[in-house]
Structures are given as structure tokens and as C-alpha cells.
Design a protein that fits this description.
- It is built from three helices and 13 strands.
- The chain has 183 residues and is of the alpha+beta class.
- It has two domains: 77 residues, Outer Surface Protein A, domain 3 (Alpha-Beta Complex); 82 residues, Ribosomal protein L6 (Outer Surface Protein A, domain 3), CATH 3.90.930.
- The chain has a four-stranded antiparallel β-sheet, covered by helices on one side. Strands 1-6-5 form a three-stranded antiparallel β-sheet, covered by helices on one side.
- A hairpin with a 2-residue loop joins strand 11 and strand 12.
- The longest helix has 22 residues.
Length: 183
């Protein structure tokens, strides 16, 4: 992480950043984010670029330097283009529907599971088997989609459950298929 901290973060058109002590406020067309960082790192905004400098050479300073730069880069990308995660539901009778801003999941339990999005995150459901989670904060988008995914992870025998789009599920043979393969 120490080397990535030296790369400046370029501010795209329409995005501004202001330093307030140990935090940076980043504003753009998709919203506003505040990124706080350790006192071991100093941040400067100049000529449309954000640069991070570390104040020491300890191991923790090296780690905080790279982390601060990565968090700032994520904030800049979030307020300019945003983040998006897509999930797919597979299984007979498994479906999703919107109820206000919350999503209601029917995934094989005796009850419906209602998940509220985190602040700054928007959940949409284009159809019963697809879920889209969008927002400007990468951590909040990831956490909301992980809450949905963890409701019913795909199982390896039938593949039923909620998975990320493009996620590969390792499938296993059932007892019957394994028994016929031995004969």
C-alpha cells in the first residue's frame, strides 16, 4: 500500500474537494462524501489533484498512507460516476419485490425478509429475479449488497439462492449422482 499512496487522485470535471483538518469533503454530481483519515497522513488539494503525504516512516504510517489515498480515490469515483452491484436470484418460488425503499425477499423461509438500504444507497428491482444496488459510497453499496447476499447464499447442490452477477458457484454431486457414478 505504500507505493499507491504516492499516486495523486485526479479530480474529474464537476468534482471538488476541500480539506478540513483530518477529513476531506468531496462534492460531485452524484452527491457529497466526507472521508476521514489518520493524523499520520497530510492531504493537499492543488491543480485538480489530491495528493497524500505521510508524516512518518513507521509501518502503520505506510499502511495509513495507502489506505487514505484509496479511500479518497473511491470517494472521487463515487461522487462522479457512482458504484453499482447487481444480484441474481435463482430457485423455484424465490423472488424479490420493492416495498417503499426497502426490498422484500421471499427465499424459502416461512417469512419474508425485509432489508432496508443504508444511508445514500438506492435499491431497485427491475424484475423478480434481479436486484440492483447503487450509491456513491463504495462501502455502503458493498455492505447493503452483502446483507442481501447473506440472506440466502447459493447452495452447492441445487444452486438456489442469491448470488452476485457473474459469481461462479461450485456445484457438487448429490448422493444419488455419486452412487450411480461408482457402479
Amino acid at each position: 500500500m505504500a507505493r499507491i499512496g504516492f499516486k495523486p487522485v485526479v479530480l474529474p470535471a464537476g468534482v471538488t474537494a476541500t480539506v478540513n483538518g483530518n477529513s476531506v469533503a468531496v462534492k460531485g454530481p452524484k452527491g457529497e462524501l466526507n472521508v476521514s483519515f489518520s493524523g499520520d497522513v497530510s492531504v493537499e488539494v492543488k491543480d485538480g489533484k489530491i495528493t497524500c503525504k505521510r508524516n512518518g516512516d513507521d509501518q502503520i504510517d505506510l499502511e495509513n498512507h495507502g489506505t487514505a489515498r484509496a479511500n479518497l480515490a473511491n470517494a472521487v469515483k463515487g461522487v462522479s460516476t457512482g458504484f453499482k452491484k447487481e444480484l441474481e436470484i435463482s430457485g423455484i418460488g424465490y423472488r424479490a419485490a420493492m416495498r417503499g425503499t426497502a426490498i422484500v425477499l421471499s427465499v424459502g423461509f416461512s417469512h419474508e425478509v425485509v432489508i432496508e438500504p443504508l444511508k445514500g444507497v438506492k435499491i431497485s428491482c427491475p424484475d423478480e429475479t434481479h436486484i440492483v444496488v447503487e450509491g456513491s459510497d463504495k462501502q455502503a453499496v458493498g455492505q447493503t449488497s452483502a446483507l442481501i447476499h447473506d440472506t440466502k447464499r447459493p447452495e452447492p447442490y441445487g444452486g438456489k439462492g442469491i448470488k452476485y452477477k457473474g459469481e461462479y458457484i461450485i456445484r457438487k454431486e448429490g448422493k444419488r449422482a455419486a452412487a450411480t457414478a461408482k457402479k
